[in-house]
């Protein structure tokens, strides 16, 4: 059981890498930002699963989830050019109408991710308590942005 759950964490890490590759290969800004958010969703799933004890905590997996969040927070803002409010997107017009507000939410997300990276060290947070302290604030940034800038479904 233990081994199976560790394997699940490892395959989730592999999935994060794949999502990141997709993100940087795509040229369509809408697809690119959605792929970045998919990798964020996968990292949140992995990190949240470990926080809840559904997946055994592995420091390297904690580190990977944090690193994914940080990379996403740094790249994400580049994929909202003028005109990309049209098309198959869940981004609300508020992103373009209130770009400063959107950038602020993004900066909060980036700051939380950056702090988590610092807490993560070389090997990743040592135990699940340390991981929770680092990753919890990153997860709080999701809803803060989505409630104003993403269509609810
Ligand atoms: C600064 C704003 C912002 C933050 C912070 C943010 N998101 Fe998003 N997210 C968006 C927007 C905007 C979309 C819709 C993008 C589109 O469809 O063009 C989105 C879409 C998504 C999607 C759907 C991706 C897809 O396949 O289309 C997921 C999953 C997601 N976010 C998860 C998260 C999680 C988990 C966090 C926190 C760890 C987070 N987001 C933080 C703005 C944000």
TrEMBL record:
Pfam families: Cytochrom_C_2. It comes from the Bacteria. The keyword Metal-binding applies. InterPro entries: Cyt_c/b562, Cyt_c_II, Cyt_c_prime. Residues 1-25 form the signal peptide. The keyword S-adenosyl-L-methionine does not apply. SUPFAM superfamilies: Cytochromes (SSF47175). Keywords: Electron transport, Heme, Iron, Metal-binding, Signal, Transport. This is Cytochrome c. The lineage of its organism: Bacteria, Pseudomonadati, Pseudomonadota, Alphaproteobacteria, Hyphomicrobiales.
